[in-house]
């Protein structure tokens, strides 16, 4: 185990006994939702994982330590910090650790720390990807390269709707990352249950997904898998409504010259405002839904022989 890792006792006990553990990211706490809903949601997600038979391990960096599993007060600390907390991706981890700093981990950084701890399944809201206009901005999320190199299965509601989904899929295909639809043939797009794009394969049970993960890694095919789990139908938003809100949010970001790490949180907050708060409610429900599926996959993976 890496000397810089601090495992919460619950996670440490589960990992040592080869019991199912689900990693959870922390930027959804600091940058994804407002206080106190962010902390409340993080705790609710952990409860969902436990209720489905697995152990949750929310991941962050606190005071220079890689934390695998957070106490309630640590979750609330990140929640109160909000966007003032550092947003830590792969490039930032060493800097934050060396300076004994603190920050919330993105999908990419969470995957890295989960893999260091030996956790194979990770639940999040939506993955990052190729931003619209990337042909000139070159704005491509580090999440995609991490999926290509780090062997963790990521359960999500698809790429965030604000992205160029077609180019995101092209990038994943080029780097050999399977995109699996859970009980769906078309790729969900975060706030909406489908998009104009097909998944690579449809699998209808957690056991099938677990066997696919094991086969991939047993073959020496490093890298992750995207498990795309549509937002529950009662909480999905109509595509035309989401598209209008995103178009306006993108125009606002351009007018205000918002780029880089600040772009995604800005767009999500702006879309939430333009949808009268409905997108935030949907975000909460899709994360809970992903946590349930991730726990089921972790349980099935832990039960596989060898």
Q: Which key features would you list for this structure?
A:
single chain, eleven-stranded mixed beta sheet, 13 helices, 48% helix
Q: Can you describe what's shown?
A:
Strands 1, 2, 3, 4, 5, 6, 7, 8, 9, 10 and 11 form an eleven-stranded mixed beta sheet that branches. The chain has a single domain (5-302), classed as Indigoidine synthase domain (Indigoidine synthase fold, 3-Layer(aba) Sandwich). With 306 residues, the chain is an alpha/beta fold. The protein has helices spanning 9-16, 27-30, 37-51, 72-81, 90-98, 107-117, 134-137, 142-149, 165-174, 206-218, 239-255, 263-274, 278-302, and strands at residues 5-7, 21-24, 55-62, 65-68, 86-88, 103-105, 121-123, 153-156, 179-182, 201-203, 225-228.
Topology (elements, then pairings):
Elements: E1 5-7, H1 9-16, E2 21-24, H2 27-30, H3 37-51, E3 55-62, E4 65-68, H4 72-81, E5 86-88, H5 90-98, E6 103-105, H6 107-117, E7 121-123, H7 134-137, H8 142-149, E8 153-156, H9 165-174, E9 179-182, E10 201-203, H10 206-218, E11 225-228, H11 239-255, H12 263-274, H13 278-302
Parallel strand pairs: 1-4, 2-3, 2-7, 5-6, 7-8, 8-11, 9-10, 9-11
Antiparallel strand pairs: 3-4, 3-6
What's the quick description here?
With about 300 residues, the protein is α/β, with parallel strands linked by helices.
Tally of discrete structural domains: 1
Task: Classify the beta-strand content into a percent band.
Answer: 5-15%
User: What is the CATH domain class?
Assistant: Alpha Beta
CATH topology, anyone? Indigoidine synthase fold
Low-confidence stretches: none
Total strands: 11
Q: Give the CA-CA distance, first to last residue.
A: 21 Å
Main sheet specs: 11 strands, mixed
Structural class computed from helices and strand pairing: alpha/beta
Helix fraction bin:
40-55%
Mean pLDDT: 94
The CATH homologous superfamily is called Indigoidine synthase domain
CATH architecture descriptor text: 3-Layer(aba) Sandwich
């Amino acid at each position: 185990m890496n000397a810089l890792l601090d495992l919460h006792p619950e996670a440490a006990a589960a990992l040592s006994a080869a019991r199912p553990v689900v990693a959870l990211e922390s930027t959804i706490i600091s940058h994804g939702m407002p206080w106190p809903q962010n902390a409340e949601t993080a705790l609710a997600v952990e409860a969902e994982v436990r209720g489905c038979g697995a152990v949750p391990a929310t991941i962050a960096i606190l005071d220079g330590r890689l934390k695998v599993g957070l106490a309630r007060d640590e979750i609330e600390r990140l929640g109160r910090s909000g966007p003032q907390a550092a947003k830590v991706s792969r490039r930032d981890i060493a800097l934050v650790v060396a300076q004994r700093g603190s920050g919330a981990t993105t999908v990419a950084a969470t995957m890295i720390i989960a893999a260091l701890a030996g956790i194979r399944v990770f639940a999040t809201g939506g993955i990052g990807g190729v931003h619209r206009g990337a042909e000139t901005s070159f704005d491509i999320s580090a999440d995609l390269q991490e999926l290509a190199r780090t062997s963790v299965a990521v359960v999500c509601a698809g790429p965030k709707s604000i992205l160029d989904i077609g180019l995101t899929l092209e990038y994943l295909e080029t780097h050999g990352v399977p995109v699996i639809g859970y009980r769906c043939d078309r790729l969900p797009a975060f706030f909406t249950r489908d998009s104009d794009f097909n998944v690579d394969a449809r699998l209808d049970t957690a056991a099938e997904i677990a066997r696919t993960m094991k086969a991939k890694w047993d073959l020496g095919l490093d890298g992750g898998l995207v498990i795309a789990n549509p937002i529950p139908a009662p909480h999905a938003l109509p595509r035309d409504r989401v598209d209008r809100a995103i178009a306006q949010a993108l125009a606002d970001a351009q007018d205000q010259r918002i780029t880089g790490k600040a772009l995604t949180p800005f767009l999500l907050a702006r879309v939430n405002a333009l949808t009268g708060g409905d997108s935030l409610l949907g975000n909460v429900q899709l994360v809970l839904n992903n946590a349930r599926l991730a726990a089921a996959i972790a349980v099935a993976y832990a039960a596989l022989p060898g």
